[in-house]
Amino acid sequence: MARPPGTLLLLLLLLRLLHLAAAGRPCGPVRLSRDTVLGHLGANITLTCQDEVPANTTVLWQVEEQGAAGGWGRQLAEGNTLLLRRLRYEDSGHYSCSVGSRLLRSLRLLVAEPPETPQVSCYRRSHDKDVLCEWPQQEKPSPGTRALLWVKQRFVAENATEQRCRYFSKARKFVCRVKVPPGTDDTKHLVVSTCVSNSAGGSAGKDKIITLSSVPVKPDPPVNVTVQALEKAPQRLQVNWSYPSSWDPRFYWLRFQVRYRPEPAPAFVEVDQVTTTWLDIRDAWRGTRHVVQVRAKDEFGHGAWSEWSQEAVGTPWTDPWDFTSEMEPFSSQVPMEDGSYGVTLFPKLFREDDTNGAGGAVMESSTHPVASPYAFLVTGGSLLLGIALFVGIVVRYRQTWWTSGQETTKPEGEGQHMLVPLGLPVPTFSDTPLLSHPAPSAPGMLHMTHADFSSSGQ
Known about the structure:
By secondary structure, the protein is α+β, with helices and mostly antiparallel strands. It is built from 4 helices and 27 strands. The protein has helices at 5-23, 323-327, 373-408, 450-457; strands spanning 36-39, 45-48, 60-63, 74-78, 81-84, 93-99, 102-111, 121-124, 131-136, 146-153, 161-164, 166-168, 173-178, 190-198, 201-204, 208-210, 223-229, 237-242, 254-262, 269-274, 278-281, 290-298, 312-314, 330-331, 344-345, 351-354, 361-364. β14 and β15 (201-204) form a beta hairpin. The N and C termini lie far apart (190 Å).
């Protein structure tokens, strides 16, 4: 039984559509020339000059230096083979072997790694901007790696539009701009295909089906973020920012999220549902520098948050005349694990600053040139107290010295013993009195002895 011609035509049409779809996105390694050798990063490779080398000949290997004009560059080794260990990207280049002045062979070495498979996500920076598709990279791509993107309407036999993608080294990702012809219906399905290839291989990402109306909106980060101190407000900071240039606030607004932290703290405090381009922080830490970042989202909550803005820093206002407030501890207003508050932190009278990014510590005092009157009072009082203490010590020691001097100087003869010469003979007493009794006098005369005279004188 013959097959109906309508069914055969339908099969041929489907095959044609599949062929067109496949032909629109080829993905494979870049073809290498015959004199090109491929090496993998970190591996060893051996370069061979010729299959057979005449005896008693010396083969010399050289590598061409970048920027060398005319001739070859650095000499490497001698021998028919050259072993290169642990290849790096810098080892890519032209190598040659020669005997004397006769060139035998020239090779080109390419050091590359097969590319990673793209994991594509698409978004729009605003409602009236082109669609951007991107995918991250875990490792830096090899030199010579290229990324392509194709866009075509689904179930339509037409050639895909090819577009080049750009690699951003800081963000470590490829970004492609999807250019849609003007007048394209927002509800039409589009097929997005990607391919990354280099000399070591090629890798195609999974096709992504999108519509212009379903692509999420992801704004660019806010710009011109500044942090300012408010006068006479030691716990407040004023944060200001601007809309990104890719977003027109005349048609749609953005809502913002702000996060901030004092530099000693590791975690951020987040504030949601901010509809203005400024925020007044009222619980800042006294005398402490704060780090602030802002991100944005569509006002209706559609799409995704933007990336965080660049960090901005600021320190609350400090009263230069308030010496006591600088010396007293204050509450950090950080909740503890048990649910209580009031972690006591002591303020910094001096702070450390990084000089030119070199990590050097610079001790800075108060930036106000006028000294506090309390400092003069405390200094004067301390000086007077020190003088009084010194005078008291001098007077006390002087009295002690005077008393000790009086005790050492005694009256003459008091507490002293008579000095007896040594070695003198002790006089002996004789039984014969020195004075003999006088002879009896004549009768009638009065006779008085020395003892009687002494007793009478008493």
